[in-house]
Write a structure and sequence with these properties.
Blueprint (H helix, E strand, L loop, with lengths): L2 E3 H7 L5 H9 L3 E3 L2 E2 L6 E3 L5 E3 L2 E2 L8 E6 L28 E2 L8 E7 L2 H8 L7 E8 L4 H9 L1 E2 L5 E2 L2 E8 L2 E8 L6 H8 L4 E9 L12 E3 L2 H10 L4
Parallel strand pairs: 9-15
Antiparallel strand pairs: 1-4, 2-3, 2-5, 5-6, 7-9, 7-16, 8-9, 10-14, 10-15, 11-12, 13-14
Helix pairs in contact: 1-2
Length: about 240
Amino acid sequence: MSQVRINKFLSLCGVTSRRGAASLIEEGRVTVNGSRADRPGIIIDDENDVVKVDGSEVSPVDKKVYIVLNKPRNVMTTLFDPFKRRTVKYYLKKLRERVYPVGRLDFDTTGVLLLTNDGDLAFRLAHPRYRVPKVYQARVKGHFKQEAAIKIDRGIELDDGKVGKASVSILGFVRNTTRIRLTLTEGRKREVKQLCKKAGHPVEDLERVEFAGITSKNLRAGQWRHLTQREVSRLKSAVGLD
């Protein structure tokens, strides 16, 4: 029998870093033998206890894997959904290793989604402190003018009271909508949709086209590929893990 703190166990499983485990537990996403884990410091038996994150059982990894998926519309960015909606796991059937999404994309948002079992890298890529650039293209309602772009660039208070901001370029107009490109470096929950709505232009269609320089070029919706060693090195360097 081997006993270990659950936050260390989760990092060995590639779910997140030890520090990130605290957030998962606080959000109620971790269970041990069917009961919700209530603190990061609890001790588990890593040979006999069943630990699940978002409803999926986790175990220590032997090989680190890094992939990019072109997420389709109306797919959950989780590995398990209690309401039986399609999740990104559906598209990873040919992947032997279990990987976890880096951050989240909304159900109706498409595009670049990174997945890995490297918990330390995933935690840093998703954390606002590391200011990893994420690029989106959106189609928004109305005639989006430069004044709205300036407003978003200066920062707008989000629903949680924090200030969100993005650099915005206008790509073109189609009837009563505008196509815009936004670059964010913090990526708070539903930030693009909140910023555009508060600027008077609700989002009608949203795609993430780039995450830390990684794109989904040549990948159809639902397709994925392994990252190259150069891409992995670049990601680690961007968050101080080189």
